[in-house]
Amino acid sequence: MRSEDKQEWTVIVEQRLNQFPQPTDRQPSPLQKVADCIMAYSVQMLCQIATHVVDWRIQQIFDVLLSAHHAFDMTVSARFFKLTSHPDLSKRKSCYNCIIPQMINQLKNEDMSTVSLKQQILELLPAALKAHHDFIDSLPAAERAAAGTPQEWAAKDILTHCIFWEEILVERLECARSGATPSNSDDIQALNEKNFEARRNRAWDEIIADLDTAFQKLAEQTRALSEADLSEAGRFPWQGGGRPLWRSICSWVYMHPCMHFTEVYIKRGDLASAKALQEALVSNISKLDNGSGRGAAIYSMACAFALAGQPDDAISLLAESLKLDSTLTDLSKRDSDLVSLREMPAYKALYAA
After folding, report:
1. Which of 38, 15, 217, 45 is nearest to 129 (CA)?
2. What is the DSSP string of 13-67?
3. CA 308 vs CA 102, 142, 233: distances in Å
4. Closest to 265 measured CA to CA, from 248, 251, 281
5. Cα separations (Å) of 125 from 11, 122, 135, 298, 351?
6. What is the rounded CA–CA span in Å between residue 226 and residue 176?
7. Which candidate in 104, 175, 286, 288 could, as Cys together with 180 as Cys, close a disulfide (CB 3.0–4.6 Å)?
8. What are 174-227's pLDDT values in tens digits?
9. In 3-state terms, the chain is what percent helix, strand and coil (to 5)?
């Protein structure tokens, strides 16, 4: 590099260090993070396949990439600028190969804490609705036509049961927004029996319309609530145990239906669908809560594997769920879904300590 080029490069770097982005209250959006990642990969590829490109142009790209509202860690960025001030071209290029992958890894591991809880719930609802429609689409003609009894529900009854509780949740969200008190729903058995009789002859097209309407209303009510309404424990006296609303939403619209759908898949012998459904549930719930929420989802999966006659997988999942949420311990000792595991040494070892 010519001496005048070296001098120019040094001036540019010093200027940019002085103008280095300062922390702001504004958080990068998910879209900005995606843009950052695309840009970082592009620069990495440019460094690898176009080494003849004057590297101050690469620096110009980073001027855009490392703006004050983007997601890169400022310590990593500062290190990048310092190393790129080296007058030796090969040293600067080695810097690109060293720091850029770190930035990419940071972006890949970046959590979504900047996304509001409300937005995460709104993104969960389509996944929950898809689980319902996948269940409907999977039904053979015989199961679709089957008529249930109060003692043994058919597939249609299971679906109307799930929709019924989702409609109750809509009412509860409306009450959370308006300050009213929702109808009492403590007598679960009586409500289930009443709903069964009211909807047992409902046509499939009506049921599907009810389902889609319920989820549309759930989305509308969720949008109308504040972050505090959704996230604060004990905010609503009528929420059992002071449970925050977002947990009820996850449970009533996703975990509860998936439990019923999984039982049908297993009874049918469709273990692949049961496993896929539970894996999707764990993945989606974990995005909202990687602690006790994930634990509850994995517990549900453990029950599904136990019912499917896969005890080793069930025990492994059960152990993981109890580590994430110890409050599940007492339930797991009396849960009828896990009865097939009770005499196994590995199961007993979970409670030996």
Report:
1. 217
2. HHHHHHTPPPP-SPPPPHHHHHHHHHHHHHHHHHHHH-TTS-HHHHHHHHHHHT-
3. 43, 22, 36
4. 281
5. 53, 5, 16, 19, 36
6. 10
7. 175
8. 999 999 999 988 899 999 999 999 999 999 999 999 999 999 999 999 999 999
9. 75, 0, 25
